[in-house]
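Thread: Newbie trying to understand structure tokens

Hi all, I'm a second-year student working on a class project, and my supervisor (Dr. K.) asked me to get a predicted structure for one chain before our next meeting. I've only ever worked with sequences, so writing a 3D structure as a token string is new to me. If someone could post the tokens and maybe explain what I'm looking at, I'd be very grateful. Here's the chain:
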Amino acid sequence: MMNQVLIITGKVSDAKNLEAALAKDRSFSMESVTSLTEGIKRLNKNGIDAILLDLALSDSQGIDTFDKLFVVAQHTPIMILDTTDDEPLTSEALQRGAQGYLSKNNFDSNLVPQTLRNIILRKIVEESFFIEKARAEITLNSISDAVIATDMSGRIDYLNLAAEHMTGWQREEAHGHPIGEVMQIINGTTGEPEPNPVEWVLKQNLPMALAAGTLLIQRNGNEIAIEDSIAPIHNWEGKLAGAVIVFHDITAAKAMALKMAYLAHHDFLTNLPNRVLLNDRINQSIALAKRRGTQLALLFLDLDNFKYVNDSLGHGIGDKLLQSVALSLSSCVRDSDTVSRIGGDEFVILVTQNQESQNATLTANKILKVLATPHKIDAQELHISTSIGISVYPSDGQDAETLIKNADTAMYHAKEKGRNNHQFFKSEMNVRAVERQVIEAHLRLALDRQEFVLHYQPKVNLVTGKISGSEALLRWIHPEWGEVQPDRFIPIAEDCGLIVPIGRWVIREACAQIKIWEDAGFNPLSVAVNVSSLEFTQKDFVEDVRTILKETGLPPYQLQLEITESVLMNDAEASKTILKQLKAIGIQLAVDDFGTGYSSLSYLSLFPIDILKIDKSFVQDISSIEENGFIVSAVIAMGNSLKKRVVAEGVELANQLTFLKARQREEGQGFLFSRPLTAEHYAQLMTMGIQKIP
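---
Reply by user tm_fold:
Sure, no problem. This is what the structure looks like when written as tokens:
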């Protein structure tokens, strides 16, 4: 490789002598100029590997000559052409960056090419070292890990940008300070200062890792969690020369890990413990109760008719209601107890150190009372109740799974008992639970297998004795079990959601049957169909009813829909909207079981209701000596004040009929007139009529 050398001297003889000396080495090519101006002009064209400079030129003298040249050629090796008289000046030039000098008395020496070649190679090595150093510096400053290097005594000689940011020390400030001063660390558990591990590495000449839980005290006093490793630094002879510590901030990662661990054990919506954490606490409580000879209880809660809220008001309101319920439940227990949400609207409460079920009973009663208070959600007052099943350790189970299963079984028993109550587990309940599962499985096939039929019970005008309409009542005729009573399968259908498709079938079948009777020449008048809370709150309920009427051809006024007042009052505003839509179609609307709920007369007066059906329990009280019909009289008066038609259900005895007629009730329904009949037998009844009104 040819090295290009530029000679800058005003002495022609010196230039010739140098050219002659370098010509002996074929690796050099020479150019020469006589002034600094010419030299700078040539350097601006690049391609020069070394410069031989005379400090005494026609356009520049002394050290200024070097300084001006060094500005434009600081990365090109410069050798001074020296005379004995110039030694002080040459020394100053060397201090300012010159790479060496050549004595004018020795220009013909064989050492001249060798010396020039050495400074060129040295500059190449320096440039390569600079590039590597710059590359390392850029790399270290680009990474997020902090890097701190020390000398043999543990004093800092390097920090990258990440280390500056994490420690709060600038590199220049930290240089020469002990590592323990710049990088103060403490034990994350005890808060006690820890010796810096660099000191250990320098003593042992071995790498090591930071202890888990180490915290770095930043210069401003803040604490951050760090982790990583420390290693010794060796020179090219393999001897220890210092140490380097590499670490990174894990505060955010640690917080995220804690958050993930929390979420793995808690319900995201209510922040209550989930099933995983509940099982762990139950197992711990069982172990403790076993040692102490005490009991514990599990309360399994399911919110009554919660699906109504989700379907009618949306899941957003439903979620807020669940959060409100969670707060209410937490207020009912002690700090030693656990309230958990295990999914949907199901909650389980662990009551510890239970003494003969006393604490469980007190807690359950407190919950029923607290949940009876309306929940204010987005300016709405929502009413909710719960059914509670209770299991007790050790009598009802020896492990978490069994206790939860048995409490769940008892909860379903509470629902069967009318909801809004609590029931303790009994072994015979398992038989009912199995029966329930079997019924649900067969119920799911009943529609497809056409096992459902409708029976019709007449409503009678108490003045004329004529049939004024009918009520369609669902019956299930199982191919093996025979007729299954409604109270056995309807609650199960409601709980598992099957009541919605079954209910649609009932409306369609009833409408179609009325049309068949009309086409056959009968005058069936209207037919009433009970609507469950789950059906009523379905978003497509109104449209489905409209479609059924259109497809069956039944005039809307001949369909009467019966909804219980508790369903209507659960969300009065939403109910009002649905009722108005149904009324706009032309359907008759009735409040079923009137008087048994918590209805507000002011609200009921705003509903487009046509009929109030007095619950049969009030009609049966007419025969009671204690009541003597006072309640039914009051309910009739309420109906009159609302200017609604009143129908009495459950009329079975002659004295009940006499009582109702005396109070000028026009319609009644019950076994006194007729039991529910098949469509065929009901057609015969319409032909014959009600034979006699006692």
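A couple of things are worth pointing out once you decode it. The longest strand covers residues 223-234. The chain has a mean pLDDT of 87. Feel free to ask follow-ups in this thread.
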